[in-house]
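Q: Could you fold this chain for me?
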Amino acid sequence: MLRLASASLAGTAIEFYDFFVYGTAAALVLGPLFFPSFSPLAGTLAAFGTFAAGFVARPLGSFLFGHIGDRYGRRPVLLGSLLTTGLATVAVGCLPSYASIGATAPVLLLALRFLQGIGLGGEWSGAVLLTAEHAPAARRALWGSFPQMGPPLGFLLANGMMLALTATLTDAQFLDWGWRVPFWIAGVLAAGGLLLRTSLAETPQFRDLAETGLRAAAPAAEVLRDHWRLLLLTAGALSAGYAVFYSVTTWALAYGTERLGVSRTVMLGLVMAAVAVKGALTPLAALLGDRVGRRPLCLVGSAVAAGWMFPFLTLLCTGEPVLMFLGIVVALLAFVTVFSVLAAYLPELYEPRVRCTGAAVGYNLAGLLGGALTPVVATALSDGDGPPWGVAAWLTGVAVLSTACFAALPETRPCPARAGVPEHADEEPAPV
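A: Sure. Below is the predicted structure, expressed as structure tokens.
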């Protein structure tokens, strides 16, 4: 289990490194480089628009790789998704700017971001199913938290690289070539991840499905036909997590540097410190999920997020690093309370024959509302002289929606009396 979970963590960290390094670049440099004729606000909105394209592509990638995972196994998903995202990320680092090739530059940027999203759309479900379907039932949330620690680790790698470059290079050097370095490094990381994943075994549950001939012939059609209500509920439930995370790691980064006058180095440092706290607490929250259940933690986390968004904006707008950090870290603690148990919760909600597709699509549809729209909407709502209360209202509304959706979902934690039964013994409750 430790080897499998570590491989899932490493691969997911690499994939999310690729995805996050683009978000940081969008907040800091992509506007003036690829949309130079726009005003600063419009350039940031345009850069966040290409950022959102990755989230639009993720559900499409989840259908594609979900079909592969449910028909041919979880292992091919891990290899194909990592290769797709890695190649697209390296290509972004090689892309000429608007000054070199004109309007072709933002078009190519959009296309590569779309490919990133396709790859990441399959990564999460493949990684969590590899771990969850091998894990003992009594510790499924704990082992499933390993791939859930991949996103914060990838974020820290991406932003740590950006922080080092912004601290050591002049603004001219960073705009000229420094911002490209993290994208090039993605190629080295992807190669290492592929080598690591080629030795992984297929999950016992998929082997059982293949041997008994019970694999779904058309997983996507079956999910949409038989599990559409569950799909909508999971997408709505997870949307607040995306909204909270990207509001504090992407929009707040741009708002703090452009509107509040906080240096890029300070803002990156604050966000990275808060994400490090979140990552460290992920397995602890997952342990609690194995003891008290998945749904209670999700309800508490989304409710705390709903109540914290106005205080978060108040603290952010002070421009004081300590107060800003407090606002960010509490928001991310609400996030981790929910997302720490997702790698166990979502697979348990869907039956095994369509699990890869259902979990992937539900997870990535949430990104459209929470991840794709939030930086764009928040940037538009913060165009004014006073505090951006509209941003707080948007985030609160999304969190209330998530709380309501979690209230409509069932608990899935295996019965303690059967906690030692292997996952493939089919102890999950019937899907909603």
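A (continued): Residues 417-432 have pLDDT under 50 and may be disordered.
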